[in-house]
Amino acid sequence: MDLISGLAPVPETAKGAVIAIGNFDGVHRGHQTLLARAEEEALRLGRPWGVVSFEPHPRSFFKPEEPVFRLTPEALKARLVAALGASFMAVLPFDRALADLDAEAFVMRHLVERLGVSHVVMGYDFHFGRGRKGSPATMAELGARHGFGVSIVDQVTDEGDQHSPFSSSSIRQALRHGHVPSAARELGYHWTVLGEVVRGDQRGRSIGFPTLNIVLEKGADPFRGIYAVRVRDAAKKGAPAWAGAGYFGDRPTFDTGRTFLEVFLIGFEGDLYGRELMVEFIDLIRPDRRFFSVDELVQQMKADCEEALARLAAVKAEDPVRSFPLGLLQAEGMI
């Protein structure tokens, strides 16, 4: 898949394409329905299809003092979009120049003149242009005027279910409360962190639990606690996953005053520093807590690892997301 960053030249293979436009944070099941519609239109028209998205998240631009809990930062979003079959992802810089464009100027400059789109697919709640005044109806009107088709995808939820439509906001809330299976149901895959292993303070190694430290994007805010996780080398598609116990929290026992994502790989020996890993959050084991001694902490960590193995064995036997495209690909180690 081609990643077209900023205002870089557009490859000829991406011009005249069908595009799905949106923020697509999470690439959840609602987004997946929208992308599938783009693929259908591309097949009908005999065109390639791709995604147009924005970086940083618009909320980060308008309220930089309030970091957004990003479900899928750019690198992971691109990986998921590629797994769903997109030919390209064009990432527009969300800056003052873009924010000041009115709806028609945005469409003309970025969709018509730059990409030469043949068809646009967007969600029922997507707005664009200065002051978010561009609506789905606006896009349909502009499409008729400038010669491209427009499809609007309505809200998506489980058939016959009383749940609210799938949304990035509800997934963030589920993760903030430790409701990992609920988040997976909406995502259609297990929530995943993609990041590089960096050197920590070696504290885990000193107590017999050497952990991998992964830097999270500012704003990441899942529930503080211990999780059953699966971990893969991001560079090796199809590689088997390592079982692990993941920790997201502030290390209250040691009063570090910092937030960490640490993963202990059960039964693994080796050096992964500098590697980019994918960490799948399968289930919450327990909340974070303070321990009165290192010995007490070590005993609890041993119990956590046993519980992590039990949870991972249970989900492997009947993975609830394997019926969804990204869940299936994830289970096969392809993303």
Quickly count the domains. Answer: 2
Number of strands: 12
The end-to-end distance, rounded to whole angstroms, is 14 Å
The secondary-structure element order is: EEHEHHEHHEHEHHEHEEEEEHH
Strand content: 15-25%
Number of helical runs? 11
Q: Give the oligomeric state.
A: single chain
Mean pLDDT, all residues: 92
Computed Rg: 21 Å
Largest sheet: 6 strands, parallel
Shape: elongated
Helicity range: 25-40%
CATH architecture of the largest domain: Beta Barrel
For this structure, what is the CATH class of the largest domain?
Answer: Mainly Beta
Give the helix/strand class: alpha/beta
Strand order of the largest sheet: 1-4-3-2-5-6
CATH superfamily of the largest domain: Riboflavin kinase-like
Describe the structure.
- It is elongated, with a radius of gyration of 21 Å.
- The protein has 335 residues and is an alpha/beta fold.
- Strands 1-4-3-2-5-6 form a 6-stranded parallel sheet, sandwiched between helices.
- It has helices spanning 29-45, 58-62, 74-83, 96-99, 103-114, 136-146, 168-176, 180-187, 203-206, 294-317, 325-331, and strands at residues 2-5, 18-21, 49-55, 88-93, 119-123, 149-153, 192-198, 212-214, 225-233, 242-249, 260-265, 276-287.
- It is built from 11 helices and 12 strands.
- It folds into 2 domains: 2-153, 3-Layer(aba) Sandwich (Rossmann fold); 169-331, Elongation Factor Tu (Ef-tu), domain 3 (Beta Barrel).
- The model has no long low-confidence stretch (mean pLDDT 92).
